[in-house]
C-alpha cells in the first residue's frame, strides 16, 4: 500500500509503470536506454478513493486523463530510471492529496451601496457619450 493521507492509501497493483524512451537530444546511449517512466492510474475504478476525491482528481488531471478515466503521468526529468519512477509516483500522490482538499463554499454577498452608486454613475456617463453620437436636435 502507498500511503497518500492519513485516511487514504492506494494499492501498489493499481499503479502501472512502464519504461519508455525519453524524448529530446541525447548521446550514443539514448537510443538504447529507456529511462523515462509512464505511470498509469485508473481513477474511476480505484476502490481506495472516495467518490468525491475521484471527481476532483478527474477535474485536476485535465488533459492527462484518458476517456476511460486513466490518469497518465510521464516523468523524464532525470537521467536515472529510478529517480523518474520516484518523481512520477510523487506527482501522483501530490495530485491525489490536492484532490482530497474540499473547496470552500462560496458565500453569497450583496453589492455595497458605494458599488451600486459607482455602477449607476458609469451607466449615466456612458449614456451621455452615446447620446452625443446622435443627430443634433432642432437643426433642420
Average pLDDT rating = 79
Number of domains: 1
Structural class: alpha+beta
CATH topology: Double Stranded RNA Binding Domain
**Spatial shape:** elongated
Give the radius of gyration.
Answer: 27 Å
Number of strands: 5
Give the strand order, joined by hyphens, for the main sheet: 3-4-5
Question: Helix fraction?
Answer: 25-40%
Counting DSSP H or I runs of 4 or more residues, the number of helices is 3
Q: What is the N-to-C succession of helices and strands?
A: EEEEHEHH
Give the distance, in angstroms, between the N- and C-terminal Cα atoms. 88 Å
Biggest sheet, in brief? Answer: 3 strands, antiparallel
Q: In percent, how much strand structure appears in the residues?
A: 15-25%
* CATH architecture call: 2-Layer Sandwich
Identify low-pLDDT runs: none
- CATH class type: Alpha Beta
Write the layout of secondary structure elements.
Layout: E1 2-3, E2 9-10, E3 15-20, E4 36-42, H1 51-61, E5 70-75, H2 81-100, H3 113-132
Antiparallel strand pairs: 1-2, 3-4, 4-5
Helix pairs in contact: 1-2
Name some characteristics of this structure.
single chain; 140 residues; alpha+beta; Double Stranded RNA Binding Domain; three-stranded antiparallel beta sheet; two-stranded antiparallel ribbon; 3 helices
Fold and architecture overview:
- By secondary structure, this protein is α+β, with helices and mostly antiparallel strands.
- The protein has one domain: Double Stranded RNA Binding Domain (2-Layer Sandwich).
- It has 3 helices and 5 strands, in the order ββββαβαα.
- The protein has helices spanning 51-61, 81-100, 113-132; strands spanning 2-3, 9-10, 15-20, 36-42, 70-75.
- The strands form 2 sheets. A 3-stranded antiparallel sheet has the order 3-4-5, covered by helices on one side.
- Helix 1 crosses helix 2.
- The chain is elongated, with a radius of gyration of 27 Å.
- The model has no long low-confidence stretch (mean pLDDT 79).
